[in-house]
Specification:
Elements: E1 12-13, E2 16-17, E3 20-21, E4 26-33, E5 37-44, E6 51-55, H1 66-72, E7 77-81, E8 96-98, H2 99-113, E9 118-123, H3 125-136, E10 141-147, H4 155-165, H5 173-183, H6 189-199, E11 200-202, E12 208-210, E13 224-226, H7 231-239, E14 245-250, H8 258-267, E15 271-276, H9 283-286, H10 288-303, H11 327-340, H12 344-365, H13 371-399
Helix pairs in contact: 1-10, 2-3, 5-6, 12-13
Length: 402
């Protein structure tokens, strides 16, 4: 089941993307995580539809999924969370932005909204948070959608994001828009302006600044970030994900390489990789039509039980050998032949003994080699032994003594 329900409602607000009014609308809502940390989120779609909880990447907000909300709100209830320190959510008073704290926030939101099971989607930083949440709470996640994220990230792409978000802290709004258009040339100016309205806030001096916690921009030690999970352990987290997983990679991404994406899905128990054309790291907004099509097709297959697709061919039926009708006459002929040539079994036995001696000699002479070499020698030595044994068994069967 992909269904998950909760109650709620509040005034609707129109938004704009790609230079045109959205036909779907969302509700701005808040909830509380922990003792007093207030988290904001945008809610799209009907209350009784299957729930998708979406986690954005670093420096942005739940509004990065607005284009997806416009296209999917007729069939899903979308909860696009502003994670702690981002968007309209409060900043962590103690500067705690570790992965463990983000995961605890997701669980607090789940409890507050009364969600039993839901679809979890995460982009970049939010994708790593989604993996950790699913690893810790597999019973809560019916399907997992990861957007341009893996156990490894290309350093160049990460540096590009850091340079963009750690640039001048106060600028005119149009200057921020111009910088964003240079950073992502796939978007229209109208779309960039709409996105920046959700990422920036005005200051009393007439300038604008980023909404996300400014301590992120103060360098090492200002906040606690990341996780103690090492690289090998993170790979293992991805391998052990329990629910079906869709991994979406932007064709032009400078964060997630094709090689890493293919390896991740190959090592998963139930994973699917879709490369979205004409998209960079910000896949949902760069190509929202193909992004939405991939997500909905995946969820349709999960709900209908068509996922994962079988990736192995059925084993061939064992060959059958019918017993000849004149088998008794043949057996008498074989017994007569063995009486005329009694030395045939002795030759077969000598062949087996010789093969065994050769195998032992090859094995002992290779004792100084590595484990892989010893296994190859044992395998090569065993072949004549097995062949000789098969010949003996065949002759015995034919003679009626098998």
């Amino acid at each position: 089941m992909l269904l998950s329900r909760a109650r709620g409602g509040c005034p609707r607000r129109e938004s704009v993307a790609e230079g045109r009014p959205l036909t779907a609308t969302y509700r701005e809502r808040t909830t509380t995580a922990g003792a007093d940390l207030q988290l904001a989120y945008q809610e799209w779609g009907p209350d009784d539809a299957p729930v998708i909880l979406a986690l954005h990447g670093f420096g942005v907000s739940g509004h990065m999924f607005d284009e997806f909300g416009q296209r999917a709100a007729d069939r899903f209830r979308l909860l696009n969370l502003d994670q702690r320190g981002h968007g309209d959510s409060q900043w962590a008073p103690d500067g705690d932005y570790t992965r463990e704290s983000f995961v605890a926030d997701v669980e607090a939101v789940r409890v507050a909204l009364g969600l039993e099971r839901f679809i979890l989607m995460g982009h970049s930083m939010g994708g790593l948070n989604a993996v950790e949440y699913t690893y810790r709470h597999p019973e809560r996640v019916s399907a997992l959608i990861l957007v341009d994220v893996g156990p490894e990230a290309a350093r160049e792409g990460v540096d590009n994001i850091m340079r963009f978000t750690r640039g001048p802290d106060e600028l005119d709004f149009d200057e921020f828009v111009a910088n964003a258009m240079r950073f992502n040339t796939r978007r229209t100016e109208e779309n960039i302006r709409e996105r920046m309205r959700h990422r920036l806030k005005p200051l009393e001096n007439g300038k604008w600044t980023w909404k996300f916690d400014k301590r992120f921009r103060e360098g090492e030690g200002a906040v606690r970030v990341g996780s103690e999970v090492g690289s090998d352990e993170l790979w293992q987290r991805f391998r052990e994900l329990a629910p079906p997983v869709l991994l979406l990679r932007g064709e032009q991404s400078d964060i997630l390489s094709q090689e890493v994406a293919e390896r991740v899905v190959a090592e998963m128990g139930a994973g699917r990789l879709v490369v979205v054309p004409a998209a960079g790291h910000s896949v949902p907004g760069d190509n929202p039509d193909d992004f939405t099509a991939a997500v909905t097709a995946f969820l349709d297959d999960v709900e209908a039980g068509r996922f994962p697709e079988p990736d192995v061919e059925p084993e061939p039926e064992p060959a059958s050998f019918p017993i000849p009708e004149d088998i008794e006459d043949r057996r008498r002929e074989w017994r007569d032949r063995d009486r005329r040539f009694p030395w045939l079994p002795l030759i077969a036995g000598a062949a087996v003994a010789g093969a065994v001696l050769l195998a032992l000699g090859a094995l002992f002479s290779s004792s100084s080699r590595g484990g892989g070499a010893r296994r190859r020698v044992r395998e090569q030595a065993a072949r004549p032994v097995r062949a000789a044994r098969r010949r003996v068994r065949g002759r015995r069967r034919r003679s009626g003594r098998a």
